[in-house]
Amino acid sequence: MSDKYDVIVIGAGPGGYVAAIKAAQLGLKTACVESWTAEDGKSQVLGGTCLNVGCIPSKALLEVTHKFEEASHDYESMGILAKSVDIDVAKMMERKAGIVKQLTGGIAGLFKANGVTSIHGHGKLLNGRKVEVTDKDGKTKTYEAENVILASGSKPVEIPPAPFDGEYIVDSEGALEFTEVPKRLGVIGAGVIGLELGSVWARLGAEVTILEAQDSFLPVVDQQIAKDALKQFKKQGLNIITGARMTGAEVKRKLVNVSYEDSKGKQEAKFDKLIVAVGRRPYTDGLLAEDSGVNLDERGFIFVDDKCKTEAPGVWAVGDIVRGPMLAHKASEEGVMVAERIAGHKPQVNYDCIPNVIYTAPEVAWVGKTEEQLKAEGEDYNVGTFPFAANGRAMAANATGGMVKIIADAKTDRILGFHVVGPQASEIVAQGVIAMEFGSTAEDLALTCFAHPTLSESVHEAALAVAGGAIHVANRRKKK
Known about the structure:
This protein is of the alpha/beta class. It contains 13 helices and 22 strands.
């Protein structure tokens, strides 16, 4: 087999494997390089962080623990008597591993079905669109390509006050592998990852404290939604402390002694485990030769234009290593766009319509702009909200916390932001994404017939509320 390809992709995560499959479907001779090796030291592992130690395993644990919490606390009020409900952590972890194995194995099957060549080893971009691959034995081989797509992903940020030790102080990956429920769990960072992982272990009985350096909770989220979510998280027992700057962590007698400063001064806390979830950084270690022609920006991301082209001819980059949100679905959309552009088509990713989700309970999801952003930009807008407390299906499901919020341009009525905190927010937000992708107005949604009874009726009512016409909740009086 020739070592010359139309497309070589480095990285088999959601950006890379999707780009490789799409390129192959478009008739391009495609290879995908991935260095991840299974525990046996031989087998290649596809799927990247998302499938192996990120989105998928964390959702598997979130789903199990949510069901456990419901059975432990909510069933009785619904007339279901399930006494002495217990959790088998080992079985839960075994199930999680099974789901991961099924999905990652599925990618190998998709590569085979689409004719993608899988190359096991560490890929490095050389000058002139050449890719050097180093295998597990240290042997190197060089491949040539007309186009190279860089999709090496990201890795957790490690902070000096709390270096990872793999046992007591762990990153997000380590937090998915606890063999027992820690009595006291500390989490550094109240972002998406910190909230999700904190929720998992809190539901199983851990006493969870989340320390967040920023003064506001979820500053990137619409603050009306964030405040509602914070109220519900605290009610669940999550101890979330904002404005808490960590200064040190030391393991003594099998406990993590954490020191931090907040508005009250210097503080100390002891935990059985500490999860550091302060963000992720682009993983570009050993990815680029000095003369590759690819440049990094001031934050360490690969510099690309809005079509994911780097400054080196024929070299593209997608996903967590480039600007924009570090989201699997964003990486996949970029991968598809690049593959199609290589094949001569002209698609574009609409970065204004990328949904964000926090898979806690309640879930938090949003697309578009927040009220705070629009205020800062001086935009004139109207807002419509509808609480799940007034939704019949939410009542039936015993999940009445939260709301749907729609923000529309005051002049054109075009939807500018769509925000949800509550049950199935991750699914409901898709309605906002579709509406915004098609340039819908709030009136378009208000004139749409929604099935009854559904959670989605709250979208309909929020859209009606934008113009002060909600049916099932009192509308705010307009100022004269």
